[in-house]
Amino acid sequence: MRRVAVLGATGSIGASALDVIARHPGRFRVDVLSAHRNVDALVELCGRFRPELALIADPALEGTLARKLKAAGLRTEAAAGADALAEAAAGPLCDTVLAAIVGAAGMASTLAAARAGKRLLLANKESAVMAGPLLLDALRVGGGELIPVDSEHNAIFQCLPGGRPPLARAGVRRLILTASGGPFRGRTRAELAGVTPEQACAHPNWRMGRKISVDSATLMNKGLEVIEAHVLFGASPDAIDVVVHPQSLVHSLVEYADGSVLAELGNPDMRTALAHALAWPERIEAGVAPLDLAARAQLAFERPDLETFRCLALAYQALRAGGDAPALLNAANEVAVDAFLAGTLPFLAIAEVIEATLGELPPAPVVDAETLIHRDLTARDTARRIMRRAFC
Ligand code: NDP
Ligand code: MG
Question: Final residue of a domain: which of 294, 321, 348?
């Protein structure tokens, strides 16, 4: 029986994971659930899954959570705050941690789970982008395993022999990440000037949280995934390509030295990757409809438009710059996306804010989590200053 902690349980990935878990009561037990501020949804999940511990990230809500758990007649214990999250991720209540918090807020608990040798199911790509070298160190020290949940990385993991071998020894020439192109594929810059958060969040193929939906619309999501692929699989930036594939049926590909290209296909439903990661190396039912290839008229592929969707180019640039540049990119992106969602920053300005932030802050080596958090805050302040000056 796997004892699972679902961090970010009230989100889109959390819901998909709990759906898969609920299909296999004899195989998984949910012992830890977390949310940021959504106490009611968390208590409702506690009623369904009866975990030992419920965590609310906002410390001001600990009392409310405890009261509502009690009122619901639940024996689940309540805790709050970022430290409690990291402690639970490393603690004895779980052997498997689903890192499904959105953004840099997921970094500490992701690193804690890795350091404690848990099976880490990584959806929170921002922590790999920010703290790649620290995550790899933590995995080495902890001796646990990381199974990628992001559909592209999960596909690549499935197409590599033994999951994550040294790529050169496995004869791998290239990793090819597929991108849907998001809701604005094919549009010109002029057509993107006035787009709204609602339009940006209306993804054609996937239902996701708002932050990653905007990232998909700017192609920053693919940029973060290029960096994530570099961290997880050790591929150089030149050996990671992106191809736009609007149907989102091919989740990514691995090209070998002999010219073979292996791909993982399936319907666009995160429960497939989550079921794979939860049960690996076994396979379990995920509730996903079979892929009807004959009913799909075509699989199309095209090159990404890096001139219109500057964020993807900026991510490659940050990866090549090295050091903590990816963390700075991620921080500036989070601030700019928040402002766009709040209606105070135009869509096209997201890339401009990130570029200007990277221009002001030369990369520094990644030494430890504390320094990284400090640099993350500096990049956020810089991005806010740039936004105030130029856009707000
Ligand atoms: P959602 O916005 O739907 O959910 C985010 C979850 O994180 C919620 O449980 C939220 O709690 C919690 N949370 C938000 N802020 C904080 C914080 N500061 N501290 C602690 N917890 C917090 O996001 P998604 O499920 O879409 O995405 C989660 C992660 O998975 C992201 O990193 C995303 O990039 C990645 N991912 C998502 C995919 C998808 O299909 N959705 C696909 C591949 C990767 P509350 O409800 O209380 O706000
Ligand atoms: Mg993805």
Answer: 321
pLDDT at 168: 86
Report which bound ligand comes closest to the CA of 125. Answer: 1
Instruction: Say if residue 252 carries a ligand binding annotation.
Output: no
Residue 12's domain comprises 2-148
Measure Cα distances from 391 to 9, 61, 343, 353, 387 in Å: 35, 34, 11, 9, 5
- List the strands of the sheet with 2-7, edge to edge: 77-80, 53-56, 28-35, 2-7, 96-99, 119-122, 145-148
Atom of ligand 1 nearest to the CA of 9: 9
Same domain, 25 and 96: yes
State the complex-level ipTM. Answer: 0.99
Position 16 pLDDT exceeds 80: yes
Ligand 1: centre distance to CA 258 (Å): 39
209 belongs to a structural domain: yes
Angle at 203 between CA 202 and CA 205, to 5 degrees: 140
Q: How far apart are CA 249 and CA 124, in angstroms?
A: 22
Q: Please indicate if the annotation marks 333 as binding a ligand.
A: no
- pLDDT tens, position by position, 143-197: 999 999 999 999 999 999 986 778 988 999 999 999 999 999 999 999 999 999 9
Q: Check if 206 has its Cβ closer than 6 Å to any atom of ligand 1.
A: yes
**68 and 165 share one domain:** no
Checking if the pLDDT of 392 tops 70, the result is no
